[in-house]
Amino acid sequence: MSVRSSMNQDYTIISRWMHKTLVEWQNALKDNGSITQMYEEYIDFTNNADHFKKFINLLCEYCPNLSHVRLVFSGEINDVPEDGLVEAVLRLPNVQCLTLIDAPSIALFELQNDSNQLTTLNLCGVDKKIKSSTNSLGGLLGSMKKLHSLVYSYKDYNDQIVESLAHLPNLKALTLLYLPRSEFLQLKNCKQLEVLYLYNTYEKVSTEDFLDVFSSMRNLHTLSIVFLEKNMHLTKKFYKLREFCPQLTCLTLNCCLDYFGDFAKLKYLKIDDDSSVQLDKLLTNLRPIYANRLQILDISEAHANSTKITKFKNLKGFLCGKCPKSCYSYFSKLLNLQFLSFEIFEENLSQITKIVNSCSQLRYLRLPLKIEEVGELVKVLPDILSWRSSEPDDPFVLSLGIGSVVGEIEDKLKMHPHGNLLQLDWNGMVFTSKLKELIASLGRNANKETAMTTKTIFQNPCKMAGDGLSLGDRWMSNANYKLALKSCSKKFSLEYDEELINRCRNKTINNTDYELSNQIDAFNFKYDALDEHNEL
């Protein structure tokens, strides 16, 4: 079987492991290069710089829409890649977003030579040598005047980058993981920020310092704080941020507040708490101010067991952990509800049809269903949608966590008289994408320039409202298929095994969790019968 015929996949995201030779790549990109938006690669000492640069030349010629590159370095201390790899990537004419994972010092040195076109940079792990060099990381970032969005994961308490970020007028979105307290305090000078995500600080922050940091952030419209659980004293004065952040529209916290205060523009709220969220208490606290204001409520860790949800008349999206049967009738009273999601669903399928039938504006439903349950639903759900006067050009989306498309079920849906009224979202991407579009629209105003800036930020590969709070960045997910192959390479010779490569890669792209274990499962699926005949 030829490589082309064996690879029935999308070329939106590509990696060199999809084909063996440059000739095969040239043929593939002639046909598919125009749809390519993202290129990913695993880098170690085995990468031949000359071959890599020739491949980049092909991307320059055939991929005019390629804007995002992700390079995952091995991270091994003694693994020194050849020079010129990052430099070659920066020759791509339209690259704007660059992700570097465990970048060695040589990659950072090359980045400083020609990075003026970058608008988004994701740095997860940086070689310690860069910190002691004359050209510091802070100085490098401070020189990137076009930078709109930065994601940075601290690995050393001595890292100092925030001070230099205050001098970047175009920097609107910032994500910091494991930031030291000293760096947190420097944020008070970043007055230009509109989107801020703070993940974990292991040092205590005083209430005075906390409020002081936000006192000048008048433009902030999206805020995620995931360290309140270890700084519970901050929750008592959190409401004071309303005085400093009048544009705050989207808020994500990892604990509930007794009092949220009156944020005049708050429309999105996510509580991501591992402990049990007391929904009734939360809604009681929110109702006096936000009953007619809140449009999206995400409590994926909690059970929807309160009648008070019906008081939130403008709610367009509701995401929860589990909902008892007795609560389904509540959703029919939410006349603007478009998005509904359950993490756990243990009721019979008739309850799904009742929800769809009673919620007239519901457009996107996400459920953790089994394949056989989906097969049963496609028999009856299209008829219900026809009674709701749904249109084929705007079908109802049933989002699933299954991952791979099941052709037999899709065929049954096509044969149904009203099958064009239902779209099966096998990997959950449609639901996620549409929800993010809704979230991004919440902060837009009549100013077209501001609206365009906001749209650009939300399309960039950084954390945003609606993303999970796990440290595993969803946008760097697809590089894991190569890591899986790398981890198995000592056991088998896999360099030219297209079947395994495709299986690993497709499982990575299609699975919404993006766990490395998915690739290991894919590997074992093919080779588990041979394990006993091979040495580890």
UniProtKB/TrEMBL annotation:
<dbReference type="InterPro" id="IPR032675">
    <property type="entry name" value="LRR_dom_sf"/>
</dbReference>
<protein>
    <submittedName>
        <fullName>Uncharacterized protein LOC117569470</fullName>
    </submittedName>
</protein>
